[in-house]
Batch of 2 targets.
Target 1
Amino acid sequence: MSASLIPFAVLATSLIPAVVIFFLPDDATRIRTTLNLGGAAAKVALVAALIPAAVDGERFEWRSAFVPGVDLVLRVEPFALYFLALSSVLWLVTTIYAVGYFRDTPGRSRFFGFFSLCVVATTGIALAGNPVTFVIFYELLTLVTYPLVVHERSAAAIAGARTYLVHTLIGGVPLLIGVVWLTERVGSIDFADRGSDAMTQFAAREPVTATAIFVLILAGLAVKAALIPVHGWLPRAMVAPAPVSALLHAVAVVKAGVFGIVLLVDYTYGVDVAERLGVLTPLAVLASATIVYGSVMALRQDGIKARLAYSTVSQVAYVTLGVAVVSATATTGGIAHIVNQGLMKITMFFCAGLFAVVLGITRISDLDGVGRRMPVTSAAFTVAAVGMIGIPPMAGFLSKWYLAVGSVEAGQPWVLGVLVASSLLNAAYFFPIVHRLWWKTGDHGRVAGIEAPPSLLVPAAVTAVATVVVGLVAGWIYSPLNLARIITEGIYGL
Amino acid sequence: MTSLLPAFVVVPALVATLVAMIPRIGAVAAGATALAGVVAAVALTLRVSADGPVDVALGGWAEPVGIALRADGLSAAFVLFTAVVVLVVTVFASGSSAARGTPFFWALSLALWSGLNAVYVAADLFNTYVALELVTVAAVGCVALGGRSAAAPALRYLLVAVAGSLWFLLAVGLLYARTGTLSLRLALDVLRDPTDDGALVATVLILATVGLALKSALVPLHAWLPPAHAGAPAAVSPLMSAVVIKASIFVLYRLWTSLPADAATTSLAVLVGAVGSVAVLWGSLAALRQARLKRVVAYSTVAQVGYFVLLLPLVVPALRPEADDAARAVAELAVQGTVAMVAAHALAKSAMFMAAGCLLHARGTDEIAALRGAVVTNPGAVLAFGVAGVALAGLPPALAFSGKWQLLTAVLESGQWWWLIALLGGGLLTAAYTVRVLAVFVAERETGTENTPVPVRMTAATLVTAVAAGIAGVASAGWLATTTVGVF
Amino acid sequence: MTRPEWFVALGLLVFALGSVRLLFVRDTVTRLVALNIAGAGVFLVLIALAARTDPPDPVLHALVLTGIVIAVSVTGLGLVLIRRSDDGADESRDGDAP
């Protein structure tokens, strides 16, 4: 009985703070911060405790009726915990960052209330046990991120938020109709490691309908996952404050989209069924096109956040690529990249926020010589950039390596070309920044003592160190790479 | 419970009389009655789901001589959400006398509630007709509480509603002339062979549908609604859009689910569904162009009524003589989905109008442009409006999402794909006009805008209703199943 | 056609005339009268339907009586509203009440 409440408890760690925070006045900083950090820490602790059990094979499930015949399901299993571990750890550091970033600004209770609700939605997405539950929390995420994007209430923020909503709400339409159609044809199926038998039979019986449903659901997921051509909201959501960008790009929204794609291909249809329907190669092509397009567009941006946004578009598509290439190695690389990219990208967004807050810098061309003035921040950025480019022994290298090996295994060597090209492009748009930071000179004044408020600096340093550590401990059983390997074994039935 | 059924009609009427004589106790009496009403409605729902429909013959006189009352799953559902809306609006209205218009608000709203319950539990068409008239008169009175400027919209509403009743009366007369009974159940026995009476059934349905469409403001017969609902006092508008409209919708459902169907009826149902789809589009587009908040919400109601009539084409195939289990399954899904949407609309629309009322109280006007920056001065009302709009759009975890899910499943199973456009597109349009308004609320406030504090209970009632509409979708599976008990 | 059928047709005609007038006229008193005429048409139809049996059907007559009562009350209400709106038309027309 109590075991079924565990998924619920995980949700509660961010739901309870959310509800309470809405009623707090703006200057109740101490209570609010305690609630936020307490909830975040509790969630991290819960997840850490659950991972060993899940790796050993234990599963926890909570069910409740949604409509007659269809249930809501929350389940704890490796892939869910993997995503949850990423989001809960990053929530913790982003909370610390956000508390510092928004010090003494108006509307904090409103912000942190919706911030916590955003985490609730992400947790629900991670724990979703069937397509219906996934859709519910996925759409909820859209709704609770809108107030975050619009937080500064400027005309630009309102316009950017409107673009975001238009994209995500319209994207919700094919997603909903796809899932309803699927449930109507196949019945209410739960996510299962290799897809369910009912799904396999359905795909054999009605391949055209199954393909149509796949395309519909993918279209809905593609918006949040920022696949071309529906990625346009992401660069335009840059008007959001830095902690929000960090959350959107590294933790919640984009990851939710790509998490959903993995669930669709591997846990709803099953990789064999998807391959037989012939949808995986087009998906691989789409992902590759996104990778290249994102990198090319990144090259042309002078705004720091804009370049990072297009980089996200490109990098997140690696995960989709990993899922679309039918090889355990490639999929492991793709899934591992969920964590790697998350850590690296959030570091970079933290640094971008630091540059803006401390020195008022938002353009790359203004970054000359900043390394002297803000060494820790610049070092963190450099570490993350090196990881993004994929230089060993960084974790970013490992995920790209696995993708490369896997694509050869699967008999699709053209993917190698895409990977090499994108790594070169990554270098092309990250190296100039690193170069400017350290090798150019610029006058940014002197400061005695620490270069930036610790609440902003420490999270950036922590995530930068994490990107290095993750690469070094790749052999540890609970490392992201190994967890990705375990998850993939489940997917391929190895 | 059998003795409790008449209480739904009689108690509010008695309290209304009492309150008319002693206006001072209005708020307390109405509040107590409303609370009791919600408890009784829940009890009724539980009873119907456990033991099936409840039948009461008043005074022991059996049909067709006596007045019979009947509560099945559909009735119980409508009674329940009406009671909830009455409760929250009562709390809201007790916060501000301007929201009420005049002290007669209490008596009139209770009389209105009594009439609505009478519509829901009536077992024959005569009672239904009388109850509908009661509702009309009470509702017109409520609208007229808005003072001199509300008299013209109230008059227009009166003329249209009574005209609608005449069409309905004609239909009832025709049906009685052929079947010799005013009870729908007994009429069905007589009409078993539709090939003989197909023309009659079609005529009856056409007449009744036109009349009820006038009363429900189905496009293109909707022009009376926006001025009436927007011109009413702040506590009356939620009642009008959320529950008064539902009375004629209920009767529409009753008629269409009780009479046998044939090819003509099916075509008629598809026609009505098509009109409904147009209504969804028309109302939403009009809502996007309004400059005043209450008008936006009123046109939103016009759009939502279009959804409600989508039930007809989905349910009619199950009433044909050759109907199979699949058609019946579709019909059950369709009823569950539509009732969920009707109830969700009741909650969300009352929350929207109450939010507009709060903002009106705070800023003295409901011109959208004058409400800039309301997110800082009235965060509760703005949040409520946003949540209610989202709930209306059918986004999870709202009750309307469950409704939409069931309706989408019904549409897919029945193969009538074209309704998808209205169902899916309507939600997007609802989101559009909600966000348009929200964007103004969120923008920077101009300095110097006056702001009167809003009584806490008004904001609280609004917020609670909006949140209820917004999250009820995840816990309503059991309730959805009860809505179809005894309907077919 | 038999007599009742003639009267049904006549009643429908009166109903139609009243309804059309109600739809297209601007003056409120005229509209109220038109509504009453439409009502009279419906009552005529019901009475004619009742006359098809011998003795006439009492239930339909009851419907008509109820209808007449309702029509009278509604007319009274309508006249009060007309009076108020005429008075209100002198003041500025705002449209939305508090």
Note: The beta strands of chain B are 54-57, 68-71.
Target 2
Amino acid sequence: MTHPISYWQTFSNVLKRDLKVAVRNKGDIFNPLVFFVIVITLFPLAIGSDPQILTRIAPGVIWVAALLSALLSLERLFKNDYNDGSLEQMLLSPQPLFIMVFGKVLAHWILTGIPIIIIAPLLAVLLHLEQAAYTALIVTLLLGTPVLSLIGAIGVALTVGIKKGGVLLSLLVLPLYIPVLIFATGAIEAAALGMPYAGHLAIIAALLAGALTLTPFAIGAALRVSTN
Amino acid sequence: MHFESLSDFFAMGGYAFYVWLSYGAAFGLLITLTVVSVRTRRNLFDQIRSKQAREQKLKEHRQGNKNNEPKT
Amino acid sequence: MWKWLHPYAKPERSYQLASTLLPWFAVSSVIALTIGIVWGLAFAPVDYQQGESYRIIFIHVPAATLAMSTYMAMATAAFVGMVWQLKLADAAAAAIAPVGAVLTAVALITGAAWGKPMWGTWWIWDARLTTELILLFIYIGIIALHNSFEDKVLAGRAAGILTLVGVINIPIIKYSVEWWNTLHQGATISKLDKPSMPTEMLIPLLINILGFALMIGALTLVRFRNEVIDRNSMRPWVRDLVARESK
């Protein structure tokens, strides 16, 4: 008779496994990050290097690039596990599904969200972002990227069983990302003008709280549908 | 009747383009949706009918084969 | 208490109910829409501020409000299908989705055509328009997700999850006009206050809203019957039905 493992043990097992797998496939981490960097550098090349214009568009460009990069990196969240059957094993296990989902999404955020948060201020220099806005940039990314991971995971869970699900994923997930985008860029722009932006941050934090509590159930239900 | 004449009605006080664009687009889309929905029903019925005919033919073919089986 | 609903979990029974209701909805919607649109286009008085272009309201407001209501109807069907595992409820949700999408598109197009003479621009990124556009994307996403599954049962479940996740957008649309002071005007009709619109304009508007609602009902019934037949094409009752119709 084996001891049932605790919730914390389940969570950390899944988290450690995902981190280990990612470390062994470093491309999975670097490619979305390089994509993020390249997309941001494309804008000054396309729009011209006038600092006035770049300052105006900097918050939006960084956040849109973060959205697209998140979308790109989400694919690997469930795909490999789905292909080799370990996803079904997770669904069959006696532990609650939402714990394992939490572990996987947290791993995803550590591998993709945190690098973006670290690199974004450096890229903001390229776009001549206002000095006053840097704190806002980092805080909005800190609060917002987990929301992107959580909501994106719903989309991936729904499309993991579909061939060529990648295009459909963007269609499903981007409309749901739009509130985060609007409030985050609103906060950064308010900060750039020297105005208070705590309200915007509060709303993003509320979105995060809502996503943390509600999405794991949606993700679990979607996974059950996809693996059927 | 609010308008003086039919041509006044069509002119819509100068806003003819916008008013008729709106009403036209709305009607166009809604009528297309209606037509597609009704046509789907007809297509479904045709599909079921042809499927039934195919199955009937297959059944008759098999019956025919069974009747003509060599009696050993 | 809900025993009387149980027979309607059978596809045949629900199909018959839909067939019985359809003529009522279809005819009454045509009557209501004809009265409402003719009244609104030809008989309602002119608005002294906006001129004749305000007549677009008789299409725009019904389409925009009912696009949200249709989404809630679809979400309710998806919820019922998910909680009580009723496949017919998923079929109903699948039937409603394209109707809602078309309504949202009509709302956006008529809104743009009204905005050009009124505000001077076809489009503006204010709260109400942006959230309505997001609603259209969510509708399209639901339809696309549903179509990408081979198995209709799985498709219904997956689309149901996405529908319920998207419900959060509806209160955002509804209250966006209150939360953000923007170009789009505030609510004209509210349950408790006197409407800010004169009666001669209000009555045709209400008739149109009713007509649109009945039309949505009629279209949904047509599509629902199609979905039921599509998912049950092997059953004897469907075969009999097709045979009877071919006579």
Note: Chain A has a mean pLDDT of 91.
